[in-house]
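In response to the reviewer comment on reproducibility (Comment 2.3), we provide here a single inverse folding case reported in full, input and output, so that an independent group could reproduce the run without further information from us. The structure tokens appear first.
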């Protein structure tokens, strides 16, 4: 598989010099060299990194002489956390090596709305004590607590955060909650498109005020007879832990929506954003200016708000309060009986504007209510809030660190090329290979949420296993087959024949 992947990346097998057997031999050499020395080798390598790399942090914990957990973060990860670490998430559901230790990745969202790693850890179990050690190591490395931590509904994680991060607020992952919806309602209700669309819009709407959410939730539960369903009652009780409206006071909280958020930031994406051309949806000059100053991802968010402001918002003038012009803006949604009103304050000459919905604080871009009043006051450019000098220094430091890590000290100066040294060089572990083993590998673990012990079956194996299962009786053809009445070929043929007659 590795050989095939390499050939695909290079453009064909003719461009790959090593043969399949060479890849197999390398795997054999790796197993022979490492053997039972895994834990000692990784600790030696991490300690070498800590000794040679500037500002590299590494912590590990052992139970007797067995590796239990480890946490690491380099200078790049620390720089990311210092800049973007107000809202973070960590996912503890990744399967890892043959010991079944769990890989925990701490992530944040950068100014491109892309995922950046701010720390990582391996742990052998998912206990409160294990998570508490992890968060203490994280706090020792990064010094300050995050403002908001996005987590799943694991009780152990929640308890550990409350113990170690007493000043941080935690939010439950919306993706995990919505994934459970199918198992909490009947199949008929889950296939009801109207219910799913209305429920999704209700829980994801960041502009809805908490009191309006509570009223609309009650109406939806009553309409679909879910008032006594235990899961919905419990989730409503916990609404301030997962509904976005209850986190609007936390900066940039709306960008991080799931613990499994994926994203890659690279130079080509930034260049593509700068060179991109867009189709304007309004004749507003402010939309054209936004296309020139925002990255591609953020521009589409801003464009949507400008479009909504141009065609769906109305306003009324209130007066002057403490030097601010005050307006009430209403978003007119024909599909909803509720008309939310938002207070907007503006100082047009100073290019300052505030909206009570706090959209800029939680999402990083202005809201439709603010754009409505800006366009009413003749403002043609979005006011700047970022410190360009600080951002330039951050980017410069990021590029410098990347160059340093590309010239890894462990890959230089190999005088002899024994099998063991070649393997170590390929894997990036320290040389010489340790002879004395003080830290031993952990026992194979079985952790909740980390998948099954067996390998993942192929699509062919799944199809074969499903073919052996007993199917339900189809009313159309009267046989036990893998289809239902709607897709029954006998019924479809009969219906078509009747139609032709």
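Designed residues, in position order:
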């Amino acid at each position: 598989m590795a050989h095939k992947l390499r050939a695909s990346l290079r453009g064909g097998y003719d461009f790959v010099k090593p043969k399949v057997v060479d890849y197999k031999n390398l795997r054999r050499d790796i197993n022979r060299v490492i053997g039972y020395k895994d834990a000692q080798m990784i600790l030696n390598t991490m300690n070498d990194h800590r000794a040679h790399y500037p500002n590299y942090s590494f912590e590990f914990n052992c139970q007797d002489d067995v590796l239990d957990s480890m946490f690491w973060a380099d200078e790049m990860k620390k720089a990311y956390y210092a800049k973007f670490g107000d809202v973070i998430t960590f996912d503890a559901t990744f399967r890892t090596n043959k010991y079944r230790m769990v890989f925990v990745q701490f992530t944040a969202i950068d100014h491109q709305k892309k995922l950046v790693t701010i720390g990582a850890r391996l742990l052998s179990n998912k206990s409160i004590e294990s998570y508490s050690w992890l968060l203490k190591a994280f706090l020792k490395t990064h010094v300050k607590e995050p403002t908001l931590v996005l987590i799943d509904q694991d009780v152990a994680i929640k308890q550990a955060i409350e113990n170690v991060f007493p000043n941080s607020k935690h939010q439950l992952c919306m993706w995990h909650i919505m994934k459970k919806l199918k198992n909490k309602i009947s199949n008929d209700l889950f296939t009801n498109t109207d219910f799913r669309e209305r429920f999704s819009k209700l829980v994801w709407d960041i502009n809805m005020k908490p009191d309006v959410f509570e009223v609309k939730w009650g109406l939806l539960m009553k309409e679909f007879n879910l008032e006594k369903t235990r899961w919905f009652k419990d989730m409503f009780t916990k609404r301030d832990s997962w509904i976005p409206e209850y986190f609007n006071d936390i900066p940039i909280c709306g960008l991080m929506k799931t613990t499994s958020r994926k994203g890659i930031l690279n130079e080509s994406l930034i260049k593509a954003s700068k060179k991109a051309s867009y189709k304007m949806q309004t004749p507003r000059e402010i939309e054209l200016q936004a296309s020139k100053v925002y990255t591609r991802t953020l521009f589409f968010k801003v464009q949507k708000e400008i479009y909504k402001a141009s065609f769906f918002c109305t306003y009324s003038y209130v007066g002057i309060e403490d030097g601010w012009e005050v307006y009430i803006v209403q978003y007119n949604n024909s599909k909803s009986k509720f008309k939310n009103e938002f207070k907007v304050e503006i100082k047009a000459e100073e290019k300052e504007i505030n909206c009570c919905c706090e959209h800029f604080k939680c999402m990083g871009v202005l809201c439709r209510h603010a754009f409505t009043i800006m366009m009413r006051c003749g403002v043609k450019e979005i006011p700047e809030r970022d410190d360009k000098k600080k951002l330039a220094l951050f980017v410069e430091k990021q590029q410098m660190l990347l160059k340093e890590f590309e010239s890894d000290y462990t890959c230089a100066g190999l005088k002899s090329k024994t099998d063991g040294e070649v393997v170590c060089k390929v894997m990036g572990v320290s040389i010489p290979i340790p002879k004395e083993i003080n830290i031993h590998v952990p026992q194979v673990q079985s952790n909740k949420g980390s998948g099954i012990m067996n390998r993942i079956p192929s699509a062919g194996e799944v199809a074969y296993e499903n073919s052996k299962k007993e199917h339900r009786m189809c009313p159309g053809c009267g046989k036990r087959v893998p289809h239902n009445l709607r897709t029954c070929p006998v019924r479809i043929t009969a219906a078509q024949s009747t139609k032709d007659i």
